[in-house]
Amino acid sequence: MSAVPVPPSRIGLFFFYTETSAPLRTLARIAEDAGIESIWVPEHSHIPAAGHTQGPLGEMPEKYSRLFDPFQVLATVAAVTERIRLGTGVSLIGHHDPILLAKTLASLDHLSDGRLLLGIGAGWNRGEIENHGVDFSRRWARALEHLAAMKAIWTQEEASFHGEWVHFDRIWSWPKCVQQPHIPVLLGNINPTPMVARHGDGWLPLSLAHPGALPEGIETLRQNAREAGRDPDGLDVTVMCLERTDPATVAEYLDAGASRVVLRAPLSSEERFREYLAAHTNRRAAV
């Protein structure tokens, strides 16, 4: 097994950013100075007040309803950093107008000099999903159609698209993405289903039970890629740890084949944030 702590260049941070968090610009600069590879931001437009109290890890924390807009957070991080990559973990793209979201994301890719990583999902909170007019049972179908429409806008000078939910003819929309052919897309799912290899540039396994489950998932992903005519070596695997994870477990995920591991860092104070990074990067926690 790899020595621990692991190199910070293979660690991302999961930012559940709310109004009670430490100043965002400060946290972003600290993370970049520590050599952290990426910052990832989740998306919830709202949480219904009645019912739906269970989250992916049990009772839903109040902060799910207090999250800042993910694209505003990432734009702020981009403005005060030069190297750190910017990820959505995950963006619920089926809830958005795909024409507007395509412009938002391409603009962010430009303003960050090509640092954006688009993690996408279909959501798990039924009330939130249905409040956006999305059929819960068909949320992935709609998300993937929105993704296809955005790819058309990003890759065609004069884009057209006709699907079940999205229709437009011959539109002009700039900027195009800095990263070509478009922003890398990673699909968030517990299992590496065939749609990950068909539609994505990588897989975001969400809180696997243990690192030992990862090699089998990666082999399934690679087989699905071969069947889809994709290069199995070209797919990113980013493990998202929604629960607290120790450095030894991070090293096991990387040894098992993860491209990076994203950790849920404490954001309540600058001091706690520095201490957490020091524990995972073997760097002194300067205060």
From TrEMBL:
UniProt keyword list: Flavoprotein, FMN, Monooxygenase, Oxidoreductase
Residues of the Luciferase-like domain: 22-240
Domain of life: Bacteria
InterPro entries: Lucif-like_OxRdtase_Rv2161c, Luciferase-like_dom, Luciferase-like_sf, SsuD_RutA_monooxygenase
Protein name listed in UniProt: TIGR03619 family F420-dependent LLM class oxidoreductase
Keyword Flavoprotein found: yes
Organism this protein belongs to: Sporichthya brevicatena
